[in-house]
Structure prediction request, 676 residues.
Amino acid sequence: MGDQIQFIVEKLNQEPFRKNYNLISFDSLESLQLLQLLSDVLGEIDPKHAVDIREELPEQTAKRMLHLLGILKYKPPGTVSDLSAFRQGLVTGSKAVIHPVLHWLLQRTNELRTRAYLARFLVKLEVPAEFLQDDTVADFNKQYEELMEAFKNLHKEHEQLKISGLSTAEIRRDISAMEEEKNQLAKRVERLKKRVETVQNHQRMLEIARQLRLEKEREESLAQQKQEQKSQLFHAEQRLQRAQVQLKEMQHVVADSKPESLMKKLEEEINFNSYLVTEKIPGEVESKKTSVYYLEKVVAEPAMTQADLTALQSELDEVNAQMNQLIEKRMITYEPTDSKFSMYRQQASIISRKKEAKAEELQAAKEEMSSLEKLREQKSSQAHGLEGSEVLTEDEFKQYVSKLRSKNTFYKKKRLEIAEITAEYGILQRTEELLRQRHEAIQQQLQAIEEKKGISGYSYTQEELERVSAVKSEMDEVKGQTLDNMSEMVKKLNAMVTEKKASLAPVIKELRQLRQNCQELTQERDEKKIQYDSCVAGLETNRSALEQEVKGLLEESAQEESNYRYINCMKRNLEIQLQRAKEEMKAYMSPDPQERRRAVREQYTRIILDQENLGKKLRDKQKVVRESHGSNMKQMKMWQDFEQLMECKRDCFLKQQNQAAIGQIIQEGGKDRLVL
Prediction:
């Protein structure tokens, strides 16, 4: 069910829905929202169903959805009673009904969209039989069925063309290119025909050329067959070499080993494998399961904010502090018997860690050995492919050096012979050049004589016929030699194969015995493995049941512990409040005035009295201010008028002083003019 919801959420978050749901928000949807979501998905399949369900009655919504689901061939699980429950759940918006429908629809959206499109034209209208008695209605019904069949055929052709992937433009381009190439080839053939028709005996020459082409094709096919047989021989030699190497390895293992050593190796391997199966691999599997569980838990939770991370960090710090306190308490209450057990525990943990480290080293060494073995086989196959051989021993290397020295002397002799032949080749080449010049001169004289006699081209035709006949005879000889060589090679190959079979017969016999022993051991191992698997399955079942029980008890214990802490905190708060109330009553009822004065009630009473006195004083002050407000305002107005009057007098005095200074300056200026 969780995988189903996960798939639905992933599909709804993609195009074209883009709902931005997560597992929690999707699971918290109400029935009306689920029905609207189902209607949206059906509307994506068939646009006619993209409606708002709030604008129609619940019965109409259910009828519309059931009709479309019937067209899409959705089969609800269960019997007839379950079908009625399905209809009721679809009306009420039940999650148990809508989730499977959404999962089925989102799995095959494209297919259902095509089916809904075809249903618009292929769902046949049922006409009552009494209406079909009318000829007009019967004719229309027949035309309707014919059009339906025509639509089916057209749709099939359309789908086939879509699958084929061929477009008309590409086909036209290919046809035009092929026609252009055809025209070019036709023009070339015409030009060649015109050139050949001018040559004498061109029909015979064409026939000879055709025969030559056929013989060349036959020669190529024979060469290809020869190459294939060479490759088959090479592969057979490779298989033989590999079989010989395996035989040597098996003989070496059999020669160097005894039954006791083989049994010891098998016991060591069985112990190692049993350790891996019983201790190492289950621990790794359990750790992987735990990590996967925590990862799934993290994925299922909603996105965390910085505040959530801060709260988790603080909670983690508190848990670490509690752990440290518990460790300190344990160290305080440490006993000698516990020290002995702890020493043994430490030794056991050290041994187990060393054992795990050695097992990992052994596993890595085995993997490295297998990789090196594969690399060695690869290198040996490459060496065989390059026509190489195995690594030589000391005696073989000495023989190889002596052969190399003899070949070196032989090479020097042949090199001297090649130098002599090269010198002679230079002389012969010069002689050939002189003879070619004489031949050209004689040929020119012969052509001149033929032109005089009226038989030009006779000598050229004669030479060509002789040359073609000579080439044909040489090719026949080569073919005969090739066939003889191939038959001899086939005989040699058959003889070599027979010889190898005879030499490998005892080896194959020994190998069969070893295979039989291997099969018996494998059968015994399989039986032991079946017993082990059944035992492991039973233990695993018991372990899982115990784990579930322990997990439930741990959760119950954690819940009870949290309840206990909460109740303990509430109890402590109530005790503190009760203690404060007792102290207050004691202070209030005490005959000592000093003690009573320290009571909270007395303190608040004094504060209330002080505040009441302060309020009374402020009210008296407010009353005095109200009574003297009118006279004070009138006096303030008079002072403001007096201030304006004094400012006006000051301005007039300043103006009068400025005018007197200006008149004095003018009089002094007039006196100066008179003196001048």
Residues 494-590 form one domain. The radius of gyration is 57 Å. Residues 450 and 456 are 5 Å apart (CA to CA). Residues 335-339 have pLDDT under 50 and may be disordered.
